[in-house]
Design a protein that fits this description.
The complex is a heterodimer of chains A (159) and B (129). Helices cover 33% and strands 28% of the residues of chain A. With 159 residues, chain A is of the alpha+beta class. Chain A starts with a helix and ends in a 9-residue tail after the last strand. Classes of the chains: A alpha+beta (159), B alpha/beta (129). At the A-B interface, α2, α3 and α4 of A face α3 and α4 of B.
Chain lengths: 159, 129
């Protein structure tokens, strides 16, 4: 029922330039697992220095954590999350889309204690662009990172 | 070819995404040394360890994140909550350096709130007796 939201409109790249993990049960354990798998792909396929690598992994983690913590509160905490990362070699960008079919809103900082609510500010500080699209069908967070170079190696063509 | 056995040097076996926390006292200063990953799954461990240490009436508490590979906002929230919950006359400090820990703490403006130090020696010199 949410097909339109789970299909990002990026140009179709080589397989080595794309990472996807779809339909994952949205909980804390899976948020960590998907983050680690994404980090493995990022390390192998995308040429980033240590600071940028940490920044991207943390931003993606915060988006996954938001879904795990907030998206399905009204559905007894059950629902799924989709992650898709696409590297555009020509534009030197990396776009990571995190999609859920739940319901959450960007929290109002005024209504929170200072110990909470840093996920979205972190994403905005770490990514070059953050868009959060909320509809009745769910929420899509898109994180874009600029000046991202692909790792060029022979293996990238295999498969 | 069992190389994994020799590659593991920590005293506690944890999952890849796990977190290990040790407690060490220097006089009335307690140092909680964390290693691994502090995210939404493991941050309750850090929260519980801090709460346990605070019950022993330290004069200062230092959370050492030197060996932490990944710090998420959930972990940052625990640090801020701990600072807020501890009595104001208890010294509080966080040791962190590097892109995965001190950088995000600074990015969201928490360095001053939690008291950020780049080494444990520096934190102990500032907070210890």
């Amino acid at each position: 029922m949410a097909f339109a939201m789970t299909t990002p409109s990026y140009p179709c790249p080589d397989d080595g330039d794309r990472f996807a993990d779809n339909g994952v049960a949205a909980d804390a354990r899976n948020a960590g697992r998907v983050r680690d798998e994404f980090a493995g792909w990022l390390r192998a396929r995308v040429g980033l220095d240590d600071v940028r690598f940490s920044d991207v992994v943390l931003a993606v983690n915060e988006a996954l954590a938001n879904v795990a913590e907030f998206a399905y509160r009204q559905q007894h905490g059950t629902g799924t999350v989709d992650l898709e990362a696409v590297q555009d070699r020509a534009a030197a960008t990396l776009a990571v889309t995190i999609t859920d079919q739940g319901c959450w809103r960007e929290p109002d900082p005024a209504k929170q204690g200072r110990a909470r609510g840093r996920g979205i500010p972190l994403m905005r500080a770490l990514a070059d662009e953050v868009t959060i699209d909320t509809s009745a069908l769910g929420t899509t967070v898109c994180l874009r990172f600029d000046n991202v170079q692909a790792i060029v190696d022979a293996d990238a063509k295999i498969g | 070819m069992d190389e994994q056995a020799t590659a593991t040097n920590s005293m506690t076996t944890t999952a890849i995404t796990g977190c290990v926390i040790s407690e060490e006292w220097f006089g009335r200063t307690v140092v909680l040394g964390a290693s691994g990953v502090i995210d939404m799954l493991t941050s309750p461990q850090l929260e519980a360890s801090i709460a346990t240490s605070l019950k022993k009436n330290p004069t200062a508490i230092i959370v050492d994140l030197t060996d932490v590979d990944f710090l998420a906002s959930a972990g940052m929230g625990v640090l801020v909550a701990a600072r807020d919950q501890a009595s104001p006359d208890i010294g509080f400090g966080v040791v962190a350096s590097g892109p995965a820990t001190s950088r995000p703490l600074k990015l969201v403006g928490l360095a001053d709130i939690v008291g950020l130090y780049s080494t444990l020696d520096e934190a102990r010199a500032a907070l210890g007796e």
